[in-house]
Amino acid sequence: MKQTYRDIDKDGKGQVSLLPEESEDLWHAYNLIAIGDCVTASTIRKVQQESATGSSTSSRVRTTLTIQVEAIDFDTQACALRLKGRNTVENQYVKMGAYHTLDLEQNRKFTLIKVHWDLVAIERVDYACDPTQHADLAAVVMQDGLAFICLVTSAMTLVRNKVEVQIPWKRKGNAQQHEKGLHRFYDTVIQGILRHVNFEVVKCVLIASPGFVKDQFYEYMMQQATQQILRHYNWKVLMDPAVVTMKLADTKAAGEVKSLEAFYVMLKTEPSRAFYGLKHVQKANEAQAIEILMVSDSLFRAQEVGKRKIYVDLVDSVRDNGGDVKIFSSLHVSGEQLDQLTGVAAILRFPMPDLEEE
User: Fold this and answer.
1) Per-residue buried b or exposed e for 169-184, using 16+ beta carbons within 10 Å of the residue's own CB
2) Rounded distance, CA 278 to CA 281, Å?
3) At residue 49, does pLDDT exceed 60?
4) Radius of gyration of the chain from Cα atoms?
5) Which residue ranges does the record assign to the eRF1/Pelota-like N-terminal domain (predicted)?
């Protein structure tokens, strides 16, 4: 995401212009835009025109509209974001108050206008526009003849390439054809990785499969690496298990998983230091007891401004008290698990047995 303009006054009112450059950027936009916000973007409008003779013709024109958002729809599979609302700035094609649907797209700028930009929204913009925050983990999920090359960010998992190669069955007298098919499949996967994985950003590549497919692919890939076919790329991170563990632990998504795992352990071993649900977490915060606060980003998409403000204020307060705040993406498995725990949970600095009894 690229920020092209920002004007927010001291009271939090203002606008930010953004240019989505990747699929994930539209997910960030979905989390930023709330019901009641105004969005300005380029769009296509069907226009009826009447000639002097009374006949009418219709044409499609591109124009810029500003709508006050009444409905938001995000397709997680296609990473498509659609906004519906009434036009707030009249132009030659669309009257004031007329309904229109805006489709936000990659590489097409939009401006988001809010009555109040809270801290969580501003941090989301800063995070989305920070190039160092892009996908730092890649994954290859495979079986014989089929592989998906994915980039794992802290917000979502993006499938960048699907590889499908027909491999002849391994029969007596046909082993050589089977072997050739396997190598053709492996080579195609390797080329896909080189094409879609930026090793200046990615710290680790995970390979996953049923059975021994991953091991056979890994062995073949390392053979190619030793033959210097991949000499310019950082494949060495895959060769040492200790390096892989260290690199994986340093990824952003791993930090959230680690926190949630620590919460579950604490819930079993020392339950008076692990709480979930807004009421209990708020009481723990009043006692300045929260060491780690975990919040699902789905809670910040609440249509009620007051409900969103409750969680924004909680985040601010925990940080003011020296606590660590982790905002989980609801598109990650860890975020889904947190949503099952009401979407908010906390690990405390010290036990609160009285709160546990409640």
Assistant:
1) eeeeeeeeeeeebbee
2) 5
3) yes
4) 25
5) 1-130
Cβ count near 105 (within 10 Å): 15
Closest-CA residue to 358 (of 268, 284, 260, 261): 284
Phi, psi of 16 (to 5 degrees): -135, 130
The residues, any chain, with a CB within 8 Å of residue 329's CB and separated by 6 or more, are 27, 154, 155, 156, 297, 335
Contacts for 209 with CB less than 8 Å, ≥ 6 apart: 141, 142, 143, 217
Residue 336: domain span: 252-348
Q: Please compute, for residue 243, the number of CA atoms within 13 A of its CA located in the half-sphere on the CB side.
A: 10
Whichever domain contains 284, its CATH number is 3.30.1330.30
The enclosing H or E element of 185 equals helix 175-196
Q: Which residue has the tokens 């009447």?
A: 50
- Residue 354, exposed/middle/buried by CB under 10 A (0-12, 13-18, 19+)? exposed
CB atoms within 10 A of CB 70: 12
CB 67 within 8 A of CB 82: no
Task: State how far the Cα of 45 lies from the Cα of 62, in Å rounded to an integer.
Answer: 6
Q: How far apart are CA 65 and CA 88, in angstroms?
A: 8
Cα 139 from chain centre: 15
Q: Give, in order, the Cα–Cα distances in Å from 7 to each of 29, 111, 120.
A: 17, 11, 17
CATH of the domain at 51: 2.30.30.870
- Tokens 């700035």 correspond to 89
Distance CA 34, CA 300 (A): 9
Over residues 263-283, the pLDDT tens digits come to 999 999 999 999 999 999 999
| Alpha carbons 312 and 118: distance in angstroms, whole number | 7
Tokens of 125: 């913009």
Question: Contact, 118 vs 312, CB < 8 A?
Answer: yes
Query: Is 278 found in the same domain as 329?
Result: yes
| Separation of alpha carbons 255 and 140, rounded Å | 21
d(CA 128, CA 155): 10
pTM (predicted TM-score): 0.66
Domain count, the chain: 3
Q: How confident is the model at residue 186 (pLDDT cuts 50, 70, 90)?
A: very high
